[in-house]
Structure formats: C-alpha cells, structure tokens
Amino acid sequence: MDNDSRDERAKEAEPSEGVPAPEGPANLIDTDYVIGQDNLATDKLGFSIDLHGKVFTISALVTVFFVVLTLALQDQVEPLFTAVRDWLTANLDWFFLLAGNVFVLLCLALIVSPLGKVRIGGMHAKPDFSYSGWFAMLFAAGMGIGLMFYGVSEPMSHFGAAMGGTTVEDGVRTDWAPLGAAADDPAAAARLGMAATIYHWGLHPWAIYAVVALALAIFSYNKGLPLTMRSIFYPLLGERVWGWPGHIVDILAVFATLFGLATSLGLGASQASAGLSFLFGVPETDATMVLLILGITAVAIVSILAGVDKGVRRLSEINMGLAILLLLFVILVGPTLMILTGFFKNLGAYAVHLLALSNPFGREDANFSQGWTAFYWAWWISWSPFVGMFIARVSRGRSVREFLIAVLLVPSLVSVLWMTAFGGTAIDQLVGDGFEGVRDATLELQLFVMLGELPLTAITSFVGIVLVVVFFITSSDSGSLVIDTITAGGKVDAPKPQRVFWAIIEGVIAIALLLGGGLAALQAMAVSTGLPFTLVLLVGCYAIVKGLMSEPRT
Amino acid sequence: MYSKIMVPVDLAHLKVLEPSLQAVTDLARHYQTEVCYVGVTSSAPSSVARTPQEYQQKLEAFAQQQATAHGQPVSAHTISSSDPVADLDDLLIKAIDDVGADLVVMLTHPPKHLDVIMPSHGGKIATHTDASVFLIRPPRS
C-alpha cells in the first residue's frame, strides 16, 4: 500500500479523543504477516496462553536439554563451554573489538546526522515515560548490577596490573596490564586503570545496547513489525524472516537472555550471600542462597503482575534514588576533591587512551585485550537482545538523537563518575592511606570493604545490599517480559501468567544449577552467544540506516 | 436513567464478546443512550493493528457496525499503552471519567481460584468506580 493513501486514510479516521496525539507520518512496511498468526492460543488450562508455537517449544526444549546436560555431565561440559568462550575471545578478539568500534561510530554519526531527527513511533509520537523513569530503567536494565560489583574491583584490578609493569616470557606478554602498563608510577597507573575501566563501561557497551534497541524500536514502532529480534532482519531477508531464519534468531535471543539471567541470578545470589555473611554474619549456606533467589523471584513476580509502569519503572526509580544517595555519600565523605577533579582527569585519560585501547589489531597486551575487553564485548553483546529489547520497549516517542544521547552519552558519563568515586576512593585508600584491605578482598566484597573505611558503614553497606538485590529484581522482571514477548511472537499483550512462568523458570534454573553445579559453565555458554549476536548487531546497523533513510524527518 | 454506556472491547476476541454486545444493544435501545466502545491497545504493533491509529479506525468501524444493531449514537475511544495487559484496569477506570460514562457493561469470566492472585478486570473495575457496572458472564452451557 502506498504511503499517501495510508496517510489519507489515517486523516479520515482521525481519532476524536483517546489517542494522546496524532502520531504523524511514518513509513510502515507493507507485509501480510499478522502478529501472532503462528501462535497457539487457548484458555482451556484454567488460564490463557498465547505463544509462538515453534519459538516457545524449541526454546523450552533447548533450555531443558542444556540444564539437564550441565547437571548430568558437569565435569565434561564445564571445560567444553569455557573452552568455547575462551577460544572465541582469544581468536576473534579483533572481530569483537572492531564491531564495537563500528557500533560507537554509527551511534555518534547518527547523533549529528539529519537522521537523528526521526522520531521513534512517528513524527508526532509522545514518550510513554518521563525522563526520570526512562533514565532509571535504562540504567537498571543496562548495567546497574555490574556497577555494584565492578565499580570498585575493576579500577583496582587494572591499577594493580598497571603498577606491576609488563612481564614477557618467550616473547609473549604474560601480565594483565592494559596497553604498555605504568610500572611503579601510581599516578599514571591510576589514570590508565581508570581509562581502561571507563572504556569497558562507557561508550562501547552502551553503543551495543543502543544499536539493538534502536533497530528494534524503528522496525517495530515506525515500520509496524512485531517487537522481536527477527524484525531487525526484515531489510535483509524480507518475508523469509517469518520462517525458520527468524525462528532461529528469536530462539537464540531467548537462550542468551534466559541463561544470562539465570546464571547471573545464581552467581549473584552467592555473591550477595557472601556480602550478607561479611556484614551481618548470616551463614553462607545453600539455604541462604536459595532463599535469596526465591525472595528475588517472588518480588519480581509481584512487580511483573504490576506491569512495566507500576513495577519495573517504580523499582528502577527507587534504586536510582538509592544509588545517587550512595554516590553522593562516597563523594562527600570520601576524597571529595580527588573525585571531582578525578572525574575530568579520568575523562581526559579515557580520551587519550581510547584509540589505543580500542585498536583491534596488533595488540601486545593480549591478556588484557582478550581476557578483559573481548570477554566484556561478548558479554555485553550476549545481553544485548535482553537489554536492547527492553530499552526499545520503553523508548517510544523519543527522537533518534534524543534516544542516542540518553542511551549512549548520559550513562557513559554517569559510569565515569561512578567509577571515579568508587574505584578512585579505593585506589586512594591504597595509595594515600596504605590500606590494602580492598585489594586483598574477594571481588564481591571489595565494595563493602571500601565502604567499611568510610563512616556509617552499617547503613551504607545495607544500602549496597539493597541495591544489588533490587537490581536483580528489575533484571528478572524486565528479562521475563522480554522472553515472554519473544516467545509470544512479538506480542506485548500476551497473557500475564506467561511472564510469571518465565520468572519462575529463571529462578528454578538458578537454584538447580546453584545446588547441582554448573552455573559458571552455562554462563560461559551464554557469553558465547556473543558471536552470533555480533553478526545480528552488524545487520542491525545496516537495518537502522536503511530504516531511518525511509522515514520522514520533518 | 443512564446517559452514556461505556463498553470495553477487545477487538482480538470479538467472538467471546457476543453475550455482552447483545446486552449492550438491548440496554442502549431501552434507555435510548449513547454507547462508547473503548479499546486498549499496545503502542507496539499488535495482532489487531500495527499502530494506535489503525486500532482507532478498526474500533470506529466496529462501533458503526454496532450502531446499525441498536440505532443509538456511538463513539470509539482508543487508549494506547506500553503495557496494556498490566495497565488495563487502571486505564479503563480512568476512561470511565474521561468519556463521562455512568454505566459500564463488560464481559467477565466465572469466578475461579486464580482470581485471588489476578482478579478479574470487571471485578476490579466495579470496586474502583462510582459508575454502575454490569458484568456479563458467558451463558451456562
């Protein structure tokens, strides 16, 4: 159908009331596919279900297969899955790094190009969420939990490695320092360590999320395709996207999201339990961890039933408020001047080292570029279907420029401030005060040991634990929403019990693997899906440009 | 007795709505009152429509079709939501005031145990509005 006649028809039937505003011209893709046409729907079970037959069935079977396989043959599969991941990050590191650069450059180019004027959902679409709710959800979905665990430990780690200088055996670097290290120069090592950390948590990961989210948002809200991963492939595959190629992309997205979430939930529970034990003497047993998972899942279900606006948005805003309070506390009570000047110094260090850190070829710091960067990129990319789809879902009504600034630049700056405050304080405690506690603590305890050196430890540590737990709840909530939408063939209005089902499955897998072993193995497998999804994202880049070119901009 | 009847409809499941639509037709004729058909749709593409405007067009067409059955004035009111399944009750409760209805006629299911966790939409709406609510259950058969 041509666009003029569609617009005319829309004008004729202009709603007299109800729809917030006319959405304006957009350029729908003309397809005969009806969302949900391949779905199985029934209410004979006592509640309604509405699922994509093939995607749901195969995803469920693959899930059961991998969980049983991991539980039954733990000793065999763990080395195998870990080897797959390590092989990918060691041999295809250049590919991950190169792709990451492509994503950042595309996003930056779109911000300044006229295509940035296109609005998600049509030229006159109004945003579904306020700025505060939107930012809070972007952050909670994107990396809230990671900042809690790595905010202190990663800067410390790179700082320590950089201070140690380089070591070479048989002509190969064996140290883990970024770039050329900074042996015995605390100031330079701190700058390099912060630059490396910001590189891993700044523009690149957010560009990965932005590409997936933008591609999905454009093809769903502007082009009228279902809100599911396969829609990104429409410009490339056309109508074939509704068949097996599309099924495979969607199944892979379910797999990555489900196992990424379940294993993170399992590993997170063991970390939170370590924190509780350190702070309050709670016994670090299986029972504590299972109770934590059950509690997180139960609250997540309540939140799911409340919906996006009253559930995940509200929780994200609460967490955003708590995180800001904790950040302000560390800035004010910690080395205030060092953090405030450090923010700009670290931004400068990031700018200075960015080109070298993001160089995909001829790297000498293989341990760092493969073991840290390529691993992180694979990890972010494997999370991107989940985070990207969730961001797409809540971003209708934003212009492309506004969207990219909010998804790319603002979170990057917040990450810089967070890393500077938390990591910088820990480095300052080590270099300035000679306190080695943080450096010597295990990863999950480093945040709490750092806070332990500041006043009001009991309160701040408790806030830290609450933040970790609520970030897990919002992840479980938004993850269930995403998996449900994909397995319902892109339907965002599928019955509620399905979302609850996926939240329970995540909890069950986490508990089964926590008790039976194999969390790390399955997480390695989930991270390995970063490779196929890098290809999906590169297609996404093409789709974004193609999709935006055909959209009205005025 | 009533000046405006609001009828929540789900265009994706028109067939199950038939008992309530019949009651609406009878009530509209009896009270000679306007009927406002209200639909809640997702802002993302759905099985019924790919945009909220398309949904509104379909809802208006549906309302006109119903008008031929009862001969009373009709209107159509579309509400778009990012999470229609979760927000449905609140949106409908708000819509009662927005459209100025004093009677709501809607379909509901027979009571079941799951209602404890997920109450029926009709039941929830009836407890949160001062308009009269007529809940219609599927015929016993």
TrEMBL record, chain B:
Domain of life, per lineage: Bacteria
Q: What start and end residues bound the annotated signal peptide?
A: none
* Organism listed in the record: Billgrantia bachuensis
Q: Where's the UspA domain?
A: 1-137
Q: What is this protein called?
A: Universal stress protein
